[in-house]
Amino acid sequence: MSEAPSLERLRTAAARRPERPEGMVVCENLVRIFRSEGVEVQALQGLDLAVADGELLALVGASGSGKSTLLSILAGLDVPTAGSASVAGRDLLAMRRRERLEYRRRTVGFVWQQTAKNLLPHLTAVENVMLPMRYAGLPRGQRHGRAAELLGLLGLGGKLGRRPGELSGGEQQRVAIAVANANEPALLLADEPTGELDSATGEEVFGALRSANAELGVTVVIVTHDAAVAEQVSRTVRIRNGRTSTEVLRHEEGRPGVEYAVLDRAGRLQLPAEFTAALRLSRRVRLELEQDHIGVWPVVDGPQEEPR
Ligand SMILES: Nc1ncnc2c1ncn2[C@@H]1O[C@H](COP(=O)(O)OP(=O)(O)OP(=O)(O)O)[C@@H](O)[C@H]1O
């Protein structure tokens, strides 16, 4: 007899997922080059990123820094030009067409910024959540129960029969989060999920992503420009010019965190533009190993003075 769907079962399924000591997401030296009409754009320029199993992470960065490109690769919608990337132990560069389709159905869930893009307008909330389960081959008898449980978890238990047009923007995004979790993905990706919403509604949608992370154990990566979201997660990674440049770690939610520069395997780090501008650092710098830090000095023309 098939197991009855219940929230308890969803949670146990999450707990049964194998732990990945190497991380849920591991990207190393990831490069993505777009070529169109003879012009080359390096959207990712050797990006390193590791996301732990069960983590809730925010990705921030200026427009054009490469955030969406990275998300598309992790979602299995795009393929990197070089480097390595794996999600839940699946090598994203080695997957064939069929495996890629399976990966998109079962391993990752995706929530887009545009509320309308996430849901089919003629289906009710519960039907929208059941649809990916049908594609994944979940027996018909289990779909409704599981979809209703998911919507209940996200505070929409009373709105199963509403169509997207009969729901607020925040409610639509919460349904989208349920849809993205329908097939128990290991990784949930959200691209600006609060971007079209006012701050109170954005808070509500972020709360739903947090519930999915805490209750279902799904690892969550949120691309956001929303400071309220970035300040509430324990780790915020900043992408600059197609590389991870700094990250802020917070030990207590809502408290200011400590910002660290990211050092890659080759020992490279990106100096913040304001630092290099303030000391007019360009092309070369002089490095000095001190007892507990490394000094970086501008190179001035003429005979070099000893630092300090
Ligand atoms: N399909 C494409 N063809 C050509 N260039 C592209 C393509 N997709 C992205 N780019 C370029 O790659 C760079 C990174 O774009 P990306 O969309 O990843 O940035 P982003 O950080 O997500 O920006 P935003 O915050 O505005 O969404 C940009 O210079 C962009 O113009």
Q: Give the SSE order as H and E letters.
A: HEEEHEEHEHHHHEHEHEEEHEE
* Largest β-sheet summary: 7 strands, mixed
**Portion in strands:** 25-35%
Determine and state the CATH class of the domain at 7-21 and 51-80 and 92-261: Alpha Beta
Portion of residues in helices?
Answer: 25-40%
What compounds sit in this structure?
Answer: adenosine-5'-triphosphate
CATH topology of the domain at 7-21 and 51-80 and 92-261: Rossmann fold
> Unreliable runs, pLDDT <50, ≥5 residues?
none
Number of helices: 10
Sheet with the most strands: spatial strand order: 6-7-8-3-9-10-11
Rg, Cα atoms, Å: 22 Å
Output mean pLDDT: 87
CATH second-level architecture of the domain at 7-21 and 51-80 and 92-261: 3-Layer(aba) Sandwich
Report the count of strand segments: 13
The CATH homologous superfamily of the domain at 7-21 and 51-80 and 92-261 is termed P-loop containing nucleotide triphosphate hydrolases
Distance between the termini: 77 Å
Helix/strand-derived category reads alpha/beta
What overall form do the CA principal axes indicate? elongated
GO molecular function, one term: ATP binding
Domain ABC transporter: 25-266
InterPro entries: AAA+_ATPase, ABC_transporter-like_ATP-bd, ABC_transpr_LolD-like, MacB-like_ATP-bd, P-loop_NTPase
Protein name: ABC transporter ATP-binding protein
